[in-house]
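Handout, page 2. Input:
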Amino acid sequence: MQFTKRTLIVLMIFSIGSLFGQSKPSDLVKTFFEDFHRQDTLQLANHFVSDAVMKSISQDATGQTKISTLAIERFVQSIGSMPSNRKFEEKILAYEVKEDGLMAKVWTPYEFYIDQKLSHTVVNLFVLSKINEEWKIVFLIDTRYR
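Output:
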C-alpha cells in the first residue's frame, strides 16, 4: 500500500508540471516535433503566437541564396495533408539553447528523412517568448541543404 501512495504522489508531481506548459524552451521544440510526427495540426498551430513568422533559407540551382516566407497556417495545413502512408522523420542532432527570462532561442540541426531516405539536412532556429508561463514560437527560420 505504501508503494502505491508514493508512486501516485510522484506521478502527480510530474503531471502538475505539464499543466503549466513547457518548463524549458527545448521542451517546446521537442513537443513541436512530436506533434509534427503525429500530424496534429491543432497542437502544431497552438505552439505559435498569432503573428509568428516562418522563413527558409536555401540556394537555387545557380547557387543564389533564396529566402522564402511561409505562412504558419499553410505550414500547419501542409503537415496535416501529408499522406498517412508517407513516413517522415527528423533526426535531431543537438539542442543549443540560450534563454533570458521571457526570450529564448533554440538552435537544432537535424536530418530530414522521407520514406527512410535523406531528403535534406536542416538547421532550425526557433525564437521563443514566454507568454503566461508558456513558451511560444515567435519566429522560425531554417536552412536547407541537400
